[in-house]
């Protein structure tokens, strides 16, 4: 599976509706509203790169309320137990 993180700029008057519309797209696993430089962050998990293009440019970017997006493709995933385990290698 390929994971992409999509940073979304949204119309501030439509954030809840936009977030729900993004969350309803197949392949989108989570959507967060947040403070900062972006309004929404979506996590997309699909089988191949072509599907990322379909989800992001073909669906997310066409939702009313979406003003901009930036997509970041993840190379590797880490969990807290994996990170802690990596730092404890070689410890006695």
From TrEMBL:
<dbReference type="GO" id="GO:0043200">
    <property type="term" value="P:response to amino acid"/>
</dbReference>
<protein>
    <recommendedName>
        <fullName>Transcription regulator AsnC/Lrp ligand binding domain-containing protein</fullName>
    </recommendedName>
</protein>
<dbReference type="InterPro" id="IPR019887">
    <property type="entry name" value="Tscrpt_reg_AsnC/Lrp_C"/>
</dbReference>
<dbReference type="GO" id="GO:0043565">
    <property type="term" value="F:sequence-specific DNA binding"/>
</dbReference>
<dbReference type="Pfam" id="PF01037">
    <property type="entry name" value="AsnC_trans_reg"/>
</dbReference>
<dbReference type="InterPro" id="IPR011008">
    <property type="entry name" value="Dimeric_a/b-barrel"/>
</dbReference>
<dbReference type="GO" id="GO:0005829">
    <property type="term" value="C:cytosol"/>
</dbReference>
<feature type="domain" description="Transcription regulator AsnC/Lrp ligand binding">
    <location>
        <begin position="6"/>
        <end position="76"/>
    </location>
</feature>
